[in-house]
Amino acid sequence: ADSSEAELELVAARHQPEGLEQLLARTKFTKRELQSLYRGFKNECPSGLVDEETFKLIYSQFFPQGDASSYAHFLFDAFDADRSGTLCFQDFAVGLSVLLRGTVRQKLEWAFNLYDLNKDGCISKEEMLEIMKSIYDMMGSCTHPPPRDSAAAEHVELFFQKMDRNGDGLVTFEEFLETCQRVRSIGR
Question: Is residue 14 assigned to a domain?
């Protein structure tokens, strides 16, 4: 009876999510895991949709020592695959499935998409600096000793030294993938 109630719950949302079978096919979650995720999602977002401001509020609860709003903005954009300006349960479940259970390549594609802020297929130093600054802002006072003001820019320079194989000031997905795979094989 519990599983049939949860299936009905999946159907009864104001925003009609995909059917459970379609989500099972699109994610690497079990039926029980999807049902549990859905209950948590609906608890935080009763309408079945999350706008960016609500997402920022929810995400900021995990980082009370800093300002997570910029990083939450970038995460929201990465999860909002259809660029609708809202996240539905499908967006959340599919993105989470990639992050938790995707192949290495799928995870790298997701990360690259997060860093490629203007979605032009390349990561620029400016884009990477925005992401790095947002991470430092989010971590806030929990880092000891506190980072130097130049720490984000230094991280960006190191990233580009490793990733920008042709030295053009941009990192393509191919450069990103090749470098990550090389580093991964060295670590084995």
Answer: no
